From TrEMBL:
Keywords: ATP-binding, Cell membrane, Kinase, Membrane, Nucleotide-binding, Phosphoprotein, Transferase, Transmembrane, Transmembrane helix, Two-component regulatory system. The keyword Membrane applies. Residues 42-252 form the Histidine kinase domain. GO terms for molecular function: ATP binding; phosphorelay sensor kinase activity. One of its GO terms (cellular component) is plasma membrane. It catalyses: ATP + protein L-histidine = ADP + protein N-phospho-L-histidine. This is histidine kinase. It is found in: Cell membrane. It is an enzyme of class 2 (transferase). It is a multi-pass membrane protein.
Length: 258
């Protein structure tokens, strides 16, 4: 008799556990589905705006452009910059959609990668970028293209959201490599500091649209850092500036290394 009750109780417990797990699974699926829906609707909205702008300029040109050189110049400029925005957005969407299993990780040297990005930015923006480091070379295990992307996103943001010089640094400490980008710009309010890593989140939509932003950069950057067993965080004071920091594990030297 005792055995029977015990058995029944156990199966009841098991059923209950299954129900809990099942409900959790359903909630998670719903959550994923809603996030997917939000993502698609945000992405289409972001694409619709530049398409609409290009279209209205095309119509304006068709109506009044033929003998209006000023309108012609203005339209070409707008169409060109809106096309750039679409191109960037599509590249970012593709980078988010990339199948992680196809991303190859290999030995990557960071100092050279960073110096290369800094040179490119100095030329493109004509701004002062300081670089401090405590090592001449440092290797991590990762994907060079993705690591370059994160290096690039943080420098570009620092340049976009500040006017003075910016400081890039690379330090090794306790088996980690710490890459950080400091600016003396607008800074980010405490309540926005976690949200800026969400997809499509922008603190000041009007202003960051003006700078060509879609709000995807930092979400991509954080995802890349995490895919490399690392972390990406921000430390910022409103009105004083921000420091974005990525920490990655240094790659251990293999037996074939000298
Ligand atoms: P965006 O394409 O808009 O720059 P990001 O994901 O890179 O998208 O950044 C999200 C938002 O975080 C930006 O719109 C901006 O409001 C804020 N932000 C990012 N970097 C900085 C920075 N260095 N200083 C101040 N605000 C920043």
């Amino acid at each position: 008799k005792w055995e029977k009750i015990d058995h029944r109780d156990r199966s009841k417990d098991e059923l209950y556990e299954m129900e809990v797990t099942f409900n959790e699974m359903i909630d998670q699926l719903k959550d994923n589905y809603e996030r997917q829906e939000d993502f698609v609707s945000n992405a289409s909205h972001e694409l619709k705006t530049p398409i609409q702008i290009v279209k209205s300029y095309a119509q304006l040109l068709a109506r009044r452009g033929k003998d209006n050189p000023e309108l012609l110049d203005e339209s070409i400029e707008v169409i060109d910059s809106e096309a750039d925005r679409m191109k960037r957005l599509v590249e970012q969407l593709l980078s988010l959609a990339k199948n992680k299993e196809n991303v190859v990780h290999e030995r990557v040297e960071l100092v050279q990668l960073i110096e290369h990005s800094i040179t490119t930015f100095k030329q493109a923006y004509n701004r002062e970028i300081e670089f401090h480091k405590n090592t001449e070379t440092i290797h991590v295990l990762g994907n060079a293209g993705q690591l370059e992307q994160i290096i690039y996103i943080l420098i570009e943001n620092a340049l976009k959201y500040s006017e003075d010089k910016i400081t890039v640094s690379l330090f090794t400490y306790n088996g980690d490599v710490i890459y950080s980008v400091k600016d003396y710009g607008s800074g980010i309010a405490p309540e926005d500091q976690e949200r800026i890593f969400e997809r499509f989140y922008r603190v000041d939509k009007a202003r960051s649209r003006g700078t060509g932003g879609s709000g995807l950069g930092l979400s991509i950057a954080r995802e890349i850092a995490e895919d490399h067993q690392g972390k990406l965080t921000v430390d910022s004071t409103l009105g004083e500036g921000s420091t974005f920091t990525m920490v990655l594990p240094v790659m251990k030297e293999g037996p074939d290394e000298k």
